[in-house]
Write a structure and sequence with these properties.
Number of strands: 6
Number of helices: 6
Oligomer: single chain
CATH topology of the largest domain: Topoisomerase I, Chain A, domain 4
CATH class of the largest domain: Mainly Alpha
Organism: Candidatus Roizmanbacteria bacterium RIFCSPHIGHO2_02_FULL_38_11
Family: Belongs to the RRF family.
Shape: elongated
Order of helices and strands: HHEEHEEHEEHH
Protein name: Ribosome recycling factor domain-containing protein
Keywords: Coiled coil, Protein biosynthesis
GO molecular function: ribosomal large subunit binding
Helix content: 55-70%
CATH architecture of the largest domain: Orthogonal Bundle
Amino acid sequence: MDSILEQFKKSAEKALLYLKEDLKSIRTGKSSPALLENLIIETYGGQSKLKLMELATIMTEGPTALSVTPFDPSTLSDIEKAILKSSLGITSSIQGSRLLAKMPPLSQEQREKLVKLVNQKTEERKNIIRNNRDEARKKIKQLFEAKKITEDDKFRLEKEADTETQKLMEELQLIKEHKVKEVLEI
């Protein structure tokens, strides 16, 4: 019966980790390698689709630029094409065997759109956690109805699930507030 709660906690933690990773790809006023890490690059004549972090080293180059150094110099032009095609609005220039990606400053309108995106992604994760909690409660109810647990156990398990959900919702809120602050920071 406690395995139901363990299962719920594991799936909720996954949702939390996913949100943290997902929010890294949202642009803020500062450059961060996480912005480009998961950008899909079609390379080697269209034969491979790889994440940029699998093809190159990405480092910050000051507050508004990133340096991308591919492991295989022949992929440099493919990387540049993918960066220019992305919705990030980044300009890039090839400098020898590396690429310099520059971030234009965010306008207030862009910042507001990014804040909406952060709110949307956070809300999606909240819904997933709520659905997981509801699923756990259904399983608890089924155990009770099958007389495998007592009424006291049923209420205790439901209360634990609700308490865990509340903790996770507070944590999601903190993550969201931190990211919104980053996005709005000039």
